[in-house]
């Protein structure tokens, strides 16, 4: 066990009684929240939220039963943080895929109960000249806020995505609303650019980068609910479902799991990447709400 892991496992502050830091899957350090307005599970590896259950509701996030919890691999599901680049980055040559933030251990800075029955969790990571702060509000709604500061000696460009895996009942019955009229790059079609007409349905592999930072709603009749994703500070929304063919190629996702998830990712990518001057900070976030149909 690395010294940083030992340090990260024992926060130098008292946790509120609605929170516990216990070993999770694979023995990995994990924060459990069970608050009056919602419950959640957050791994320090990647500051990775793997579960959120608003009080009175059901699990809102998808995490694969084949997800790997070894403190090295990115966890398949929940909310991976793609940072400071997305996929292989703007030049197509960056490694690891989706950046280093999702595969490093974050420091737990603060966990506090809020008067509205929610819990606020603050996590931090300093690496490669960047200072990252990630605030997760666990309650009836889920609030995700990222702050990215350039502490290096030169301006730099930063891509970011909150790669939210939403749990759905049947992805083939899902309709995603809010992207109508938006241009998108279709990665399944080699990056061809199209314009969305009508609500988005999933009838095969979907991997699209929409030029939209506006709210979207995932209508999920099979679970009798709608999930609203409301971004702030974003320029793109990525929608991904690997379908059976894509899932079969992933070691950490079962082929038959694809109908139960869809990723709706809040992002700033490519030409919309944040150009941060020395000392400058940018913020991006998303608020997620689940409602009955
Ligand atoms: O397998 P991962 O590295 O976690 O990436 C999973 C997916 O992330 C995003 O949605 C990308 O647009 C996809 O192209 C990629 O397949």
From TrEMBL:
Q: Which family does it belong to?
A: Belongs to the glucose-6-phosphate 1-epimerase family.
| Record-annotated active site | 163, 265
A GO BP term here is: carbohydrate metabolic process
Q: Which residues form a coiled coil?
A: none
User: What PANTHER family would the database entry show?
Assistant: APOSPORY-ASSOCIATED PROTEIN C-RELATED (PTHR11122), GLUCOSE-6-PHOSPHATE 1-EPIMERASE (PTHR11122:SF13)
| Organism per entry | Actinomyces gaoshouyii
Against Pfam families, the record matches this protein to: Aldose_epim
Protein name per UniProt? Putative glucose-6-phosphate 1-epimerase
What's the catalysed reaction? alpha-D-glucose 6-phosphate = beta-D-glucose 6-phosphate
Q: What is the lineage of its organism?
A: Bacteria, Bacillati, Actinomycetota, Actinomycetes, Actinomycetales
Recorded GO cellular component terms are: cytoplasm
Q: Name one GO molecular function term.
A: carbohydrate binding
- Enzyme type, top EC level: isomerase
The annotated region (Disordered) lies at 1-20
Q: Does the keyword Isomerase apply?
A: yes
């Amino acid at each position: 066990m690395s010294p940083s892991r030992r340090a990260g496992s024992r926060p130098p502050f008292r946790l509120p009684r609605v929170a516990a830091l216990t070993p999770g899957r694979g023995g990995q350090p994990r924060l459990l929240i069970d608050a009056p307005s919602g419950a959640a599970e957050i791994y320090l590896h990647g500051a990775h939220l793997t579960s959120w259950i608003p009080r009175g509701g059901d699990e809102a996030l998808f995490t694969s039963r084949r997800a790997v919890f070894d403190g090295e691999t990115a966890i398949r599901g929940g909310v991976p943080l793609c940072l400071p680049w997305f996929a292989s980055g703007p030049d197509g040559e960056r490694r690891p895929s989706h950046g280093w933030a999702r595969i490093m251990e974050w420091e737990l800075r603060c966990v506090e109960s809020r008067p509205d029955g929610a819990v606020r969790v603050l996590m931090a990571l300093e690496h490669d000249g960047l200072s990252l702060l990630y605030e997760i509000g666990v309650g009836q709604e889920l609030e995700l806020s990222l702050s990215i500061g350039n502490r290096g000696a030169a301006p730099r460009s930063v891509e970011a995505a909150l790669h939210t895996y939403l749990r759905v009942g049947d992805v083939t019955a899902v309709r995603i609303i809010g992207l109508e009229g938006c241009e998108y790059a279709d990665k399944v079609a080699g990056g061809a650019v199209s314009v969305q007409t009508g609500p988005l349905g999933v009838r095969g592999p979907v991997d699209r980068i929409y030029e939209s930072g506006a709210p979207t709603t995932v209508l999920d009749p099979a679970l009798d609910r709608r999930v609203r994703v409301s971004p702030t500070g974003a320029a793109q929304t990525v929608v991904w479902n690997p379908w059976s063919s894509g899932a079969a190629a992933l070691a950490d996702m079962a082929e038959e799991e694809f109908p139960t998830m869809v990723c709706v990712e809040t992002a700033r990518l490519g030409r919309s990447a944040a150009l941060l001057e020395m000392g400058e900070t940018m913020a991006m976030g998303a608020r997620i709400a689940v409602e009955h149909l």
